[in-house]
Design a protein that fits this description.
It contains 18 helices and 14 strands. Helix content is 43%, strand content 13%. The radius of gyration is 22 Å and the shape is globular. Bound molecules: uridine-5'-diphosphate (UDP). Uridine-5'-diphosphate (UDP) binds next to helix 3, strand 10, helix 13 and helix 14.
Length: 478
């Protein structure tokens, strides 16, 4: 296991973003939490420092520390096979087969072995009376031993599906012995509760975005443009659509030298296909991990099939994080996108781009996501399943018009036609392109959705609400 260092961030600055009542509530909540946690540590354990969970911990824990609470964040060590099993669990919990592999006794034995190794370190650190928040399936197996040692254990599952056709049973059977040992289980939607869990131990808490984090803080158009140009995501010039991209700027693979027109990408460049997006193009954007359920390839197909129905200045950018070395599933999704890009007609290829955002500096990565989201004409989230979908909340917060599939937690964030557009079925590619085309053709409508989008997040999905719900949870547990 390794520790992610968490520096405090001023809670007063967050309070200053809120109205007076909410600000007072937040300050009182911090006081309540400090009292409750006197003499205890608050541990968070996650599988990685990235994705939605990483984003949440990175934004919430600094405020918790500023409140005078000894909050810590540990990340599991696991091998490739462990992460393969975890990705499979994630997909099956979302009612998708994933790689189709089993979740049986052998997988369970491997999972237990990896967690046993991690437990040695937990044992040295976690004391009786400490509170431990275990995030997602990868960490659930730590619950029984932690409970035996006298810790207060909360399992926070960020995944789930509304589907009730039994597809998820095998994943829940895998997790049940562990999850049943947690004092409380926190889910993102009430409908995600598995049958074996009594409603009395489940609490529903939605994720949130931090208005002051590098990912969501104010960023003017000039600063956004500069960041994107420096990163090689956007051309420096103002040439016509496609001016700086050529069909020869083919996919790059790790370690390859930039090919073709990618030569005008600066060092540390992130473009994997299509070269930088022209500075005067209207950008259609999806930002996601390279995960099948985000359906980046589906979006590329929709763009290709609907190409004739989109204005000529529209460029698609698929942006995801650099792929971690152990993450073969993500590498496969990225490779599929690049291969699919290769097979496109040159005219389509010229207006489709694939980028990996560098991770060496998390703050810089978050700023790039911020800049992309602010720059985008329309933001898409074409997920096949989504526990919550922080990328959607991030886009709404920035007042961007969003088109998303009506799955999982996205339904809690977007009211169709009021603060974004929902596409009923992930297979409805025509519907998706039509929604995008409408927003591009009707800027006043897009603007109106954006204003409502920002208000929606302000009302329900900012960090203060999230923190206070955790304080309520601690209140009932301690
Ligand atoms: N993200 C990022 N950099 C990237 C790609 C994604 O910081 O290059 C972030 C994204 O902005 C969001 C998180 O990863 O904050 C993804 O969370 P979400 O809930 O959308 O999906 P998850 O990855 O948890 O399934």
């Amino acid at each position: 296991m390794w520790t992610v260092d968490v520096d405090p961030a001023p809670l007063a600055a967050l309070a200053a973003q809120l109205d007076e009542v909410a600000a007072r509530r937040l300050t009182a909540g911090a006081e309540r939490a400090r009292t409750l946690l006197t003499g205890r540590r608050l541990w968070n354990v996650s599988a990685t420092a990235g994705g939605g969970v990483g984003e949440l911990l990175r934004t919430l824990l600094p405020y918790v520390r500023d409140a005078g609470i000894d909050a810590r964040w540990l990340v599991l060590d696991g091998d490739e096979e462990f992460f393969r099993i975890i990705t499979r669990l994630h997909h099956v919990l979302h009612a998708h087969p994933g790689d189709g592999g089993p979740l049986g006794a052998e997988e369970m034995a491997h999972y237990d072995r990896v967690l046993a190794r991690n437990l040695d370190e937990v044992r040295e650190n976690v004391a009786a009376g400490d509170v431990v928040l275990l995030h997602d399936p990868a960490t659930a197996g730590l619950a029984p031993e932690l409970r035996r040692r006298g810790a207060v254990v909360v399992w926070r599952c960020h995944l789930g599906t509304d589907a009730t056709d039994g597809l998820t049973d095998v994943a829940w059977a895998f997790l049940e012995p562990s999850v049943a040992q947690a004092h409380r289980v926190v889910l993102s939607r009430a409908t995600y509760r598995p049958g074996f869990l009594d409603a009395g131990v489940v609490r529903v808490i939605s994720p949130s975005v931090d208005p002051l984090s590098p990912k969501n803080r104010r960023l003017g158009p000039a600063e956004a443009r500069r960041l994107l140009q420096e990163a090689g995501l956007l051309t420096a010039g103002e040439g016509g659509p496609g001016a700086a991209t050529t069909a020869s700027s083919g996919p790059r693979h790790d370690g390859d030298a930039p090919a073709g027109a990618a030569a005008d990408v600066p060092a540390g460049a992130t473009m994997r296909a299509g070269g930088p997006v022209p500075a005067n193009a209207r950008m259609l954007l999806q930002v996601s991990r390279w995960d099948r359920l985000k359906d980046m390839t589906g979006l590329l197909i929709a763009f290709d099939e609907g190409f004739e129905n989109l204005p000529g200045d529209v460029h698609l950018l698929l942006a995801g994080e650099e792929v971690a070395p152990h993450d073969s599933a993500a590498a496969a999704v990225l490779a599929d996108c690049l291969q699919m890009w290769e097979g496109l007609e040159p005219a389509v290829r010229e207006r489709a781009h694939v980028a990996c955002l560098p991770l060496a500096d998390r703050e810089h990565n978050a700023l790039l996501v911020n800049a992309l989201q602010r720059r985008a004409a329309v933001i898409v989230q074409k997920s096949l399943a989504e526990g919550f979908g922080l990328t959607v909340a991030e886009a709404l917060w920035k007042g961007r018009p969003v088109v998303a599939t009506s799955v999982g937690g996205i339904q809690d964030q977007i009211a169709d036609g009021a603060n974004g557009l929902l596409v009923r079925s992930p297979t409805d590619l025509q519907g998706l392109v039509a929604a995008v085309a409408r927003l591009l053709a009707e800027p006043a409508f897009a603007e109106q959705l954006g204003v409502a989008a920002h208000d929606r997040v302000r009302r329900d999905f900012l960090s203060d609400r999230h923190l206070l719900q955790y304080v309520d949870l601690l209140d009932e547990l301690l």
